[in-house]
Design goal:
heterodimer, A: 261 residues, Protocatechuate 3,4-Dioxygenase, subunit A, 4 helices, 12 strands, globular, B: 216 residues, mainly beta, two-stranded parallel ribbon, binds fe (ii) ion
Chain lengths: 261, 216
């Protein structure tokens, strides 16, 4: 598959996808074309909203039952659990995780999802929880199905769960997707492949039999590492060697980067 | 099963920073459910000048992006962030953060294709740039803005400044923006109703008048 990969990336370009990745058609008219402006992390980016939502109930993390119908969602029950960590491996406690996913047949509860996959009246496909004091989170759900989309002929998204995390600061804000191992659709999915190859495995949960509960649910583990407020600004390598980053050197790095783009 | 004692071989493996992925088209019921969207940041007792921020997100054809999600983060009227990292150096130490103001907003697009927030005009905040900035410089009042949408593989980060604020001239972040593009970061006062000023801040993803987006 030949695709145009844009040079404009926010964050580490060996980890984060570019804004323009034209195999994913929606990027073509929505990606910026002018260079990003490099800025240091100021107090505004090193602070952030905290949990922000006060009333989360335990039922919010149980997608098999939180539709409020009294019935249970149909599908293979899964436990998705792991830790939210910062770049040094320290836990990120009490942070908000919000997830959404298709049902076992690959259908979302959304007016824009109209393909003829069956809806499940007992499944809304939304959940949320806070990480605990050690950074652990845990959801009970059902394994989502793959679903078709109109990006290209016979396009199918691999099974995935959307994750949104606030983290400890504005710089740590992340929206991403969890995938499952050994899915033949990975190789065909431009959204997954927009991530640089070495970083793609970070989006794949691993089966963990110690999480699996007998005669109940299969266990999947996925740790999520967020950028922290102490992150080194993404500059030319030589400037990241210096401990003092003056405004002048920031500006010089910006110019060099613009030249490269 | 008895627990085994952790050893060096079971030390946690940090998998590396998680890459971003697009928010896609189906986030509505989750991220914008009634108690997850936050268009109104103020309570009756919140201190500060009430303002409304509104605008549209436009794509490279000038078409409104109807499935975008906007989040904002800002200081309170005294320039304090509701966050432990704001240790309030200097004279601001006397002013604790307003307990009636978190400073986080989240909006989808309404029937007119616009986002909106009812908030307060933030105060100036320290530059305090990482790793260490002892200059004591201040930043002009601003609101951090993040844009999510189908087709955005990573969120876009920008800032809203107030076009009528003379402090913009000395703002150390605006100073890093090419002069000809600074106006894309300026919200303009469009009207004033009984409750406060209305500022317009359109976000142009691509093309003529493209908004300045940041890398940090
Ligand atoms: Fe999806």
């Amino acid at each position: 598959m030949i695709t145009t990969i844009g040079a404009i990336v926010r964050g580490d370009r060996e980890v984060f996808p570019p804004y323009l990745y034209d195999a994913y058609r929606s990027t073509i008219k929505r990606s910026p074309r002018l260079p990003l402006v490099d800025v240091p992390l100021t107090l505004s980016e090193r602070t952030g909203p905290g949990p922000a939502i006060s009333a989360i109930t335990p039922e919010d993390a149980d997608l098999t039952r939180n539709a409020g119908t009294g019935g249970e969602a149909i599908g293979q029950r899964i436990i998705v659990t792991g830790r939210v960590l910062d770049e040094r491996g320290a836990p990120v406690p009490h942070t908000l995780l919000e997830i959404w996913q298709a049902n076992a047949a690959g259908r979302y509860v959304h007016r824009a999802d109209q393909w003829p996959g069956p809806l499940d009246p007992n499944f809304l496909g939304i959940g949320r929880c806070l990480s605990d004091a050690d950074g652990f989170y845990r959801f009970l759900s059902i394994r989502p199905g793959a679903y078709p989309w109109k990006n290209h002929p016979n396009a199918w998204r691999p099974a995935h769960i959307h994750f949104s995390l606030l983290g400890p600061s504005w710089v740590s804000r992340l929206v991403t997707q969890l995938y499952f191992p050994d899915d033949p659709l990975h190789a065909l999915d431009p959204i997954f492949n927009a991530v640089p190859a070495p970083a793609r495995p970070r989006l794949i949960a691993r089966y963990d039999h110690s999480v699996t509960e007998p005669e109940w649910a299969l266990g999947w583990r996925w740790d999520i590492v967020l950028r922290g407020p102490d992150a080194t600004p993404f500059e030319a390598p030589q400037s990241s060697q210096t401990s003092q980053t003056s405004q002048v050197s920031q500006a010089a790095a910006t110019t060099a980067k613009e030249g490269a783009q | 099963m008895s627990a085994t004692t952790p050893t060096a071989t079971t030390a946690p493996i940090t998998p590396g920073i998680a890459p971003s992925q697009t928010v896609g088209p189906f986030f509505l019921n989750c991220l914008l459910r009634e108690d997850a969207r936050r268009n109104v940041l103020v309570q009756p007792v919140t201190a500060g000048q009430r303002i409304r921020i509104e605008g549209r997100v436009l794509d490279g054809d000038g078409e409104p992006v109807l499935d975008a999600l906007i989040e904002i983060w800002q200081a309170d009227a005294a320039g304090r962030y509701h966050h432990p990292a704001d240790t309030s150096a200097g004279t601001r130490a006397a002013t604790p953060p307003d307990p009636a103001f978190i400073g986080f907003g989240r909006s989808g697009m309404d029937e007119n294709g616009a986002y909106w927030f009812d908030t307060i005009r933030p105060g100036a905040v320290p530059f305090d740039a990482a790793p260490a900035d002892q200059s004591g410089r201040m930043q002009a009042p601003h609101i951090c803005v993040m844009v999510f949408a189908r087709g955005l593989l990573n969120s876009l980060a920008t800032r809203l400044y107030f076009a009528d604020d003379p402090a913009n001239d000395a703002d150390p972040v605006l100073a890093l923006v090419p002069a000809a593009r600074r106006e894309t970061l300026l919200a303009r006062r469009v009207s004033s109703d009984g409750s406060g000023a209305v500022y317009r801040f359109d976000i142009i993803l691509q093309g003529a008048g493209e908004t300045v987006f940041f890398n940090f």
